[in-house]
Write a structure and sequence with these properties.
Number of strands: 2
Helix content: 10-25%
Number of helices: 1
Largest sheet: 2 strands, antiparallel
């Protein structure tokens, strides 16, 4: 719905329009889970795009390198096929 007009008291000769409501920004959640139940997630106030995915994967690699240096030998990354992946 994009018509945010509401009823209001008004002075004679003025319109009955109310300014549009501010719509909150989108919140993007990117989530990863491994076989051991560890969850790696990111929340951002931005649209999902290739830049957001690049930042997520860059940070994910830093965390995995720190916590489990041999993760590259046993982890598989699956994506859902969105164009920005």
């Amino acid at each position: 719905m994009s018509d945010f007009r509401r009823c209001k008291w008004k002075a004679p000769g003025t319109t009955n329009s109310v300014a549009k409501l501010a719509i909150a920004p989108r919140i993007t959640m990117i989530l990863g889970i491994d076989n051991f139940g560890n969850i790696y997630y990111s929340l951002a106030q931005a649209n999902s795009n290739s830049s957001m995915m690049e930042i997520y994967f860059r940070e994910l690699v830093v965390i995995l390198d720190r916590d489990k240096p041999s993760w590259r030998n046993s982890y598989v990354i699956l994506l859902d096929g969105a164009s920005y992946h």
